[in-house]
Write a structure and sequence with these properties.
Elements (H helix, E strand, L loop, with lengths): L1 E4 L5 H12 L15 E2 L5 H7 L5 E7 L5 E10 L2 E9 L8 H15 L4 E7 L3 H8 L4 E8 L8 E2 L4 E8 L1
């Protein structure tokens, strides 16, 4: 397995991976699914393509021995922090250490940019996911923000709030 920066050529594969990790029936094969909370797609190729035109955004990808993308993480510089989002691991490969390696790679990326804080948002009712991040050093800041989503990327099935988590490195 190797973790490298994704390129615009990876967009179709990233789109498939991210949507399979978050939404739809296949996402239920893993433990990170949002499909009981949100209908629709998580992202599309147009949006992913736009990320590669933004110098503050990078996407790291984990590839297996055959070159297949098995995990990814969206990173955005939001001075003085690095935002971690759209963290995705193939549902069939979750609990195999890919996520941990991607988070460590995100920390290394932050260090290269001289950023010492990583920040993210997690759906506040996703207690198992929040606990997973806490075991990796992330802490709730106490900030809760409303969930707002472009209908293009799903529709909430219930009221959703986002908990802000941070980690200093």
């Amino acid at each position: 397995m190797s973790i490298t920066k994704a390129t615009i050529n990876d967009v179709p594969h990233l789109n498939k991976l991210v949507n399979s990790a978050y939404r739809g029936e296949f996402s239920k094969k893993g433990w990170t699914t949002e499909c009981d909370l949100i209908d629709g797609s998580r992202v599309d190729e147009e949006t992913l393509n736009s990320y590669f035109n933004n110098p503050t955004i990078a996407i790291l990808k984990n590839t297996d021995e055959s070159g297949e993308i098995t995990g990814s993480v969206y990173l955005e510089v939001r001075e003085p922090k690095l935002y971690v989002g759209m963290f995705s691991v193939s549902p069939l490969l979750q609990n195999n250490g890919i996520g941990r390696k991607l988070l460590l790679a995100a920390e290394e990326y932050a260090k290269q940019l001289h950023l010492i804080t990583l920040t993210m948002t997690v759906i506040s009712t996703r207690h198992e996911l929040i606990s997973w991040y806490e075991r990796r050093g992330y802490r709730a800041t106490g900030e809760i923000i409303p969930f707002h989503i472009d209908e293009k990327f799903g529709k909430a099935k219930q009221h959703i709030e986002l908990l802000v988590l941070e980690k200093s490195i």
